[in-house]
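Purpose: get a first structural picture of the assembly so the mutagenesis plan has something to point at.
Setup: two entries, given in the order below. No constraints added.
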Amino acid sequence: MNNSDITIARDNDGGSIFKFLLRELKPKGKFFTPFNIISLPIMLLGLGIIVIRFWKGLGSVTNLTQEVPWGLWIGFDVVTGVAFAGGAYVLTFMVYILNMKKYHSIVRVTVLNGFLAYLFYAGALLLDLGRPWNVINPIIGNSFGVSSVLFLVAWHFLLYMIAQLIEFSPAIAEWLGARKARKILSGMTVAAVIFGITLSTLHQSGLGALYLMAKDKIHPLWYTEFIPILFFVSSIFAGLSMVIFEGSITNRVFSDQISEEHHKGHNSIIISLAKICAVAMFAYFFLQIVVFVHGKKWELIHGPYGYWYLTELIGFVIFPMMLFYYSYTRNSVPVAKIAAIITMLGIIVNRLNVTVIGFQWDEAVRYIPSWMEFVVTLTVIFTEIWIFRWVINRMPVLRESPSWAAEQH
Amino acid sequence: MSLDRRNFFKTLGATGVTLAVGKQSASASPAENKTEFFGVLYDSTRCVGCQTCEVSCAEANGLTAPTETPEAGKIRKTTDKYRTVVNAYSSDNGEVYVKSQCMHCNEPACAAACLTQAMYKTHEGAVIWRGNKCMGCRYCMVSCPFDVPKFEYHSYNPKIEKCTMCYDRTQQGKLPACVENCPAEAMMYGPRRDLIKEARKRIVENPGVYVDHIYGEHEAGGTGWLYLSGIPFEKAGFNTSIQTKSYPELSKGFLYSVPTIFVLWPAILLGIREGTKDNNLNEETNE
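Result (structure tokens, whole complex):
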């Protein structure tokens, strides 16, 4: 517990909540950091592109075609982004369902990360909608397309965001010094976790199931009826790799907020997560082999797509799996971090292979994202990081909860 | 209390259904099976490639008239401006013309994909697009095996363009514009069942004229548009790798697993949580 907690609590007891919020909205710390200098111009440019997009239509900024209607914004921002956000459901499963107390210190930051990822990547979906003003139609119930996988995914995004907000809400209550609210909200955590894991199982696989009807359009090396299961299993190690990666960055950037004890514990957490990743990746690799052999895909292995498939499986699944294995047998945190980065690249490669690279692979005119699509994608990511930083600097996410919160347990 | 036991369970059931089970319902309910779908039989041996269908389609739907003519070796595609196009293919017996437009599947992938029911299979058989429901996600385009729905990429208020089998006209008792205006009588509008009989009759009565296959009878689970051809279909620009199962069938297995997981997962998770909790207590007391 440090001094700022005391002041926050006292301020609120004084009743000047608006003054407090106004003060908290102001930026903290140095403004001209390297990250700000790089990200701000890109975000402004992205904002301009978004304005053009709504004014002149999607075709004015994207390279989407009639044959490839879903490009980078869906394939990367939504499908890949949500896979990376999978760490939240895996960690809450470990901490609240399996009662592994060891990981408790990183649950909050992971849930925050997951919540913001969903908020922004599902938000990016709005940019891709041609008629976004009708986005409420599947929600308010005047036209339920219940046979659609996308209907399921849309509802799950919404419900899971609420579940994650509930999981994170005790931190908000601690920030505001709302003692009663915190007690009620933290009582809802377990229910939100159970609901959230169920939702995650279904929509992580559901993102893959979206492509089941595009049977004739996806390259046969990536199209399989097991896409949903492959997407679900890979979201486990995708999410955990993100936790390792994000943890190693936040621990450096926000090191002043982390207690000595947690700093020490972090390496042991990384090694344990590496172990889980290695096992999950082995299961995933095994599934891929079963799908490959069962689908009689041997003759497809020759040619550029075949080699690309082998690159994905050997370079981005087996290789990082071995690195994870090496890292926990030798207790090497740097190797685990490298493995996490390669795994994340592999997830990007895999998701893009299904959604963009292998999609309409035999079309004469291929879709290649425009530079503006990349800028908007970066804008979404940078905005998320800005909000993430804003929250970390104010709420007890990495730092210890105020002492009154600990007493409530 | 106004909510008695019976009503409570009813409400509970209804809520449960909308939350979980409702997501799986397939496109055709028993009541709809009784309806007679209408379709069009297109006989490519009669088509002369005059493009009257294209012109009348544009007129009927307020679109632009075609500027290009069918040429063998050049593939024209339907776009957000043209709902139907005629292509020419060279064969041993001269040029063959084939009209393409939405196939109006019996179980359309686009309608199953649509999360707002904007893409809608009417009881009459036409698959229509309803702009007041559509949110422009383009999942219909991803799912359609024939790549039919087209999107207006250069509009701030984009529409999905596709053939609607002139649903408005047929509701008024008129024929689809292309069918009505075809000078070669290459098209015939009617109940799908009758069209298949007619197509079979033509194949049998004119030996050597037709390929013994009705494209659309079984393709994609059956389509509203049915094609007869004098040359093998793969040589006339048809996608012959289309599966005979309907496309919504492909995601049915996944959707059916949803209610199961929704019921089982929370129970299992709660069980595991309680189980591991006890272990912790024992450990603590042992220490």
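Confidence is low (pLDDT under 50) at residues 1-14 of chain A.
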